[in-house]
Design the sequence.
């Protein structure tokens, strides 16, 4: 049974977003906020608090001895969004977009090579504007330039938008259906994942019911995949592990009578599984995008949930084989010499 007085700390840049999510799931729980992930984990070592919630992308590469990731919240806020008055397809020729994420920039260029995509620092230098200060969120600065009409759009991850975006109009870029289906905007590694970090030996019976075992397993699978990608390629590589049901896969068809493929959220999968894994499958993919979005290399697998760890390691082997055969750094030019492999 869950401990009603469990002392949960929330740390990192998305702590307010995580707190709002948790309040919807557990409105009675009292939490402590800490802007520093390192400080929050050090407090755990000093026996202050029972657990820390943080974005998976902000988890330190090496956790201190005695600290471990015990569980995770259901994935939410994954993928990228574009804050704009119109869809990506309908932006004027050579429209100016502000984007800080290297992977998303290449994905946009792959979809529309005519657009001008700049970082906040580059845009400020070109326009003679004051750079974002240390206390100001960079995306918030970009959104203000959008509101002033200086740029056509701002693109960022969904979590950041939900923190600073307010009620501005936005379009999701990562949906497998709709206008951007052919554009292919797979999410970055650990997108939308929130981890539950505790001291080793934390009783499983105390884990809150808003944590999800499938979400934790998805994080572990993405960690295996990311470990297999060369560090020089990582910032331009999409990695994603997603749970689906057999029924969802069977809906994918070219027949217009059959609906587009639908992927059930992890939490719904857990609730519908009814104690077994019948029909539960894992879909995993690795995709690298070259300069200007002109070339890409991708491998993917889908298979039974029980074989997920094996499939992840097998996919890493296939990725390395594909990279060896199809990629050529051309003296550091960051280009590939072959088509997409999937």
Sequence:
């Amino acid at each position: 049974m869950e401990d009603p007085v469990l002392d949960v700390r929330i740390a990192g840049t998305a702590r307010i977003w995580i707190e709002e999510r948790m309040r919807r799931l557990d409105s009675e729980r009292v939490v402590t906020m800490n802007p520093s992930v390192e400080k929050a984990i050090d407090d755990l070592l000093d026996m202050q608090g029972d657990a820390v919630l943080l974005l998976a992308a902000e988890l330190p590469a090496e956790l201190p001895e005695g600290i471990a990731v015990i569980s995770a919240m259901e994935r939410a806020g994954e993928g990228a969004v574009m804050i704009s008055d119109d869809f990506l397809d309908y932006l004027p020729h050579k429209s100016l977009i502000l984007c800080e994420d290297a992977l998303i920039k290449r994905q946009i260029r792959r979809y529309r090579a005519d657009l001008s995509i700049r970082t906040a620092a580059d845009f400020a230098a070109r326009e003679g504007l004051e750079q974002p200060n240390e206390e100001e969120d960079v995306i918030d600065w970009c959104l203000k330039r959008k509101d002033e009409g200086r740029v056509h759009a701002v693109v960022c991850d969904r979590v950041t938008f939900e923190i600073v975006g307010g009620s501005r109009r936005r379009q999701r870029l990562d949906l497998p259906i709709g206008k951007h289906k052919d554009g292919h905007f797979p999410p970055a590694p650990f997108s939308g994942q929130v981890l539950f970090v505790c001291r080793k030996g934390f009783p499983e019976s105390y884990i809150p019911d808003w944590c999800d075992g499938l979400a934790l397993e998805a994080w572990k699978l993405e960690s295996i995949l990311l470990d297999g990608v060369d560090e020089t390629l990582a910032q331009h590589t999409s990695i994603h592990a997603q749970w689906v049901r057999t029924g969802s896969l069977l809906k994918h068809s070219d027949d217009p009578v059959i609906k587009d493929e639908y992927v059930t959220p992890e939490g719904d999968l857990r609730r519908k599984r009814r104690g077994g894994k019948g029909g539960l499958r894992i879909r995993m993919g690795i995709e690298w995008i070259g300069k200007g979005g002109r070339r890409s290399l991708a491998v993917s697998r889908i298979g039974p949930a029980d074989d997920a760890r094996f499939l992840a390691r097998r996919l890493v082997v296939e990725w390395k084989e594909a990279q060896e055969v199809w990629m050529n750094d051309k003296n550091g030019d960051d280009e590939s010499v072959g088509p997409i492999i999937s």
